[in-house]
Amino acid sequence: MVADEAKGNTTMNSKIASAFVGWVSLLRNPAPRLTTVTEMLGRVPAYALLVSFHALCLPLALTAADPQSEEVRSAVEISLPFLWEEGQSWIDKRGCVSCHQVPFMAWSLNAAAHQGFEVDATKLAELNSYATQITNFSNPKNKSDQTEEERAKANIDTMAQLLFATQYDDTKANTESKAKFVGYLIDAQNEDGTWKACGQLPFQKRPKPETSEVTTAWTILALGSHELEVPLTEIAKAFSADGISTEWWVTQLLLSHQRSDEEKVNTLTEKLITFQNDDGGWGWLTNEESDAFGTGLALYTLKKIGFPGDASVMTNATQFLTSSQQPNGSWEVRSTKAKNQKKVTPTAIYWGTAWAVIGLLESHASVN
User: In angstroms, rounded to a whole number, what is the distance separating the alpha carbons of residues 178 and 172?
Assistant: First the structure.
């Protein structure tokens, strides 16, 4: 479908989202009231019901019949050497695992390997081992006097991201490292249930409280079923009513999905779709031009909550990514930092490229 449907047909997309969530709710109920079905049929246009019903009849994983599968496969394959080379260059020069570089190197490459893309298994195992050693979280030359606990609690975002990144690695060493991460993350939870953003993240081009809310959300999602010191219902009270970044909206949506709050999932899904730009993408900030960072986040999240992969919202986002990729496999992304917000920077390029790959892999789960 053409890209101009994305923003020009925002109302249509929102109704499709509503219909999709509504049908899922009805199907979960073994004996839905006739009035509920009747109300839905009367409230939602026929095209929305058709699209949502058609989506429910499709397998969640796209098959080779997907017209975008070749483009997505090619985009991922081209990106892998870039992710390897630039990620390794960071490790060689900085000598540390940062919250935006190495964890997303590991996440994107592990996700690609999990879906059958050609990724050197030995190198990947070495990367996972390096990334999950807390002693590597900061350059030893700069923080040689830190205890393991101090180093861990100064890297909340790093540990949360690595739990996602290494979710497919069940080796003994990785399992032990993840157990440590869980313990340190739970211990670092503040009295109000939140976690504080670390490193350079508080200097991003959004309000500092929003950045900490995003850190909190990702940490809760990474911890999954682990019992928290402060329950999620209480933590939710500390969140703002809305945010200015796409990342804030997707993390709130994922949290609502985790809590099985279907009403809020529906509301947040419709809201996220309204931020989609005419070219099919999202910006990292909701009022900015599209980039790989925001679009990858949106694709990943919409698929995670069960949004149909063949809906125009998804196909337009995929088209934006596959058509805007650079010859070297990366995507140009402007900095998330306030002081460099108008500049395309290497850090933002890498971060955005990793998220583009994660989003494409998640939304086209059988592309390889």
Answer: 10
Strand, coil or helix: 342: coil
DSSP 91-156: HHHH-S--SSSHHHHHHHHHHHHHTT----HHHHHHHHHHHT-GGGSS-TTTSTT--HHHHHHT-H
Check: CB of residue 272 under 8 Å from CB of residue 253: yes
What angle (nearest 5°) sits at the alpha carbon of residue 135, between those of residues 226 and 120? 80
CB atoms within 10 A of CB 209: 15
Please report where in the chains the tokens 């503040």 appear, as a residue: 190
Helix (H, G, I), strand (E, B) or coil at 201: helix
Q: What is the pLDDT of residues 239-293, one digit of tens each?
A: 888 999 999 999 999 999 998 999 999 999 999 999 999 999 999 999 999 999 9
Is 351:293 a contact under the CB 8 Å cutoff? yes
How does pLDDT run across 50-71, given as a tens digit for each residue? 334 434 443 334 344 567 899 9
Q: What is the CA radius of gyration of the chain?
A: 20
Q: Distance between CA atoms of 117 and 76, rounded to whole angstroms? A: 8
- What does 24-52 look like in DSSP terms, one character per residue? HHHHHSSS--HHHHHHHHHHS-HHHHHHH
| Beta-carbon contacts of residue 341 (< 8 Å; ≥ 6 apart) | 205, 334, 335
* Structural domains present in the chain: 5-363 (1.50.10.20)
Q: Which two tokens stand for residue 207?
A: 């309000």
- Supply the pLDDT for residue 235: 84
- Asked whether the CA dihedral 335, 337, 342, 343 is positive or negative, the reply is negative
Backbone angles phi, psi at 285, to 5 degrees: -95, 145
For residue 19, what pLDDT band results from cuts at 50, 70 and 90?
low
Distances (CA, A) of 221 to 227, 315, 332, 344: 12, 26, 28, 29
Residue with tokens 């047909």: 9
Task: With beta carbons less than 8 A apart as the criterion, state whether 103 and 165 touch.
Answer: yes
Q: How many residues does the chain have?
A: 368
Q: Is 61 helix (H, G, I), strand (E, B) or coil?
A: coil
pLDDT of res. 143: 61
pLDDT in tens, 114-157: 999 999 999 999 999 999 999 999 876 666 678 999 999 999 99
